[in-house]
Design a protein that fits this description.
Blueprint: H1 2-11, H2 18-30, E1 38-39, H3 46-49, H4 53-56, H5 60-72, E2 76-77, H6 105-119, H7 122-126, E3 128-131, E4 139-145, E5 150-156, E6 162-165, E7 175-177, E8 188-191, E9 196-201
Parallel strand pairs: 1-2
Antiparallel strand pairs: 3-4, 4-5, 5-9, 6-8, 7-9
Amino acid sequence: WPYYDRLKHVWEGQTPVSTLATQVDTTLANLPGAAKRLRFTTNHDETMWDAPPPELFGGLEGSKAAFVLTTSLPGVPLVYNGQELGVADTVSFFSRTPYDWGQQPEIRSFYRDYLNLYRNSPALQEGSFEVHTPDAEDVLVYERATDDETMLAAVNVRDTSATVPVPDTYANASLTNALTGEAMDRETMSLGAYGYRLLRVE
């Protein structure tokens, strides 16, 4: 829960996005053995007493950025009932809540595509965690890596576009958008409002 509270503060503009990386480092240092932190942007408690992700994180696009940022950090992702439909209402866990699974197919596609990537990515599941922008206000750039795979991630937590340099570490690397297969520039990353990049490094 400390991460979730900080995430909301970041989206509200109260704190820089770099504070999330600091919180993750503290959490990892305190976890026993092979334990992992559950990563979520809503759950059965929060969606009932708080507000759903589209309301908390600046609409559907902001909720997608929050989910990518949260679940691409070390841990295990949680998707709560209705989240993958972009549900904008609070949800009671004391009563049955039926959903129209045909609503907002573009949001379902986002969750399906991203979680398929996560499921097949050793780096996102088990990789080391290195932050390239430790003082970032708005765009966190970080690496998840195993011996077999390296993933470079960048997430813009603001509703305005941003351009950030690709870290010098990757100057001679081949960068491919892991979600689209598109070859990417090795010098800068242009991110729209609440934009994100997950780049496979080769």
